[in-house]
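Translate structure to sequence.
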């Protein structure tokens, strides 16, 4: 079983990526192979439906998304929504990649909670017929990480691990 963890943050020291890695590690422990697609490290050009020029990253991205049995998708909250980089990446894929597959959502906020980003991502992914799991995770500016990448707060650690394990469990169930 394969999951793609799509990181929509472009920050060097991304709280979104750190939180998403907690979910990804839990998914690995639950038996999934997880490919991390970090848009900072593997950027995509601006989506243009008329541009037919081959792009190595776009082809690899679409292939990874095609092969995935489920997804972990994360974004920091910018102006009460997901990043443009993440939305742009999602424009390259669609129904063919997400139909009937589980999706776990992660967000990071500069304030209390990234509710708007999580809600907007859920709407986008549901429109693509993905199964957005009920458990979501939001990291605030005051949430801290240990040197090993785990959360200092054990309740947050548990919450983000559950996102990863729930995506794996649902993917296994849907595959029969």
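Result:
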């Amino acid at each position: 079983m394969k999951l793609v963890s799509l990181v929509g943050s472009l920050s060097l020291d991304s709280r979104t990526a750190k939180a998403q890695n907690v979910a990804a590690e839990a998914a690995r422990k639950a038996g999934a192979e997880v490919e991390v697609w970090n848009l900072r490290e593997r950027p995509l050009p601006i989506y243009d439906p008329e541009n037919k020029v081959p792009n190595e990253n776009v082809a690899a991205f679409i292939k990874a998304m095609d092969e995935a049995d489920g997804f972990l998708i994360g974004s920091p909250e910018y102006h009460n929504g997901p990043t443009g980089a993440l939305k742009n990446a999602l424009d390259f894929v669609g129904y063919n990649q997400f139909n009937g597959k589980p999706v776990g959502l992660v967000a990071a906020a500069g304030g209390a909670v990234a509710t708007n980003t999580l809600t907007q991502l859920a709407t986008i992914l549901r429109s693509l017929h993905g199964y957005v799991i009920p458990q979501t995770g939001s990291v605030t500016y005051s949430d801290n990480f240990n040197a090993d990448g785990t959360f200092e707060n054990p309740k947050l650690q548990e919450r983000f691990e559950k996102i990863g394990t729930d995506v794996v469990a649902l993917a296994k169930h849907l595959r029969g």
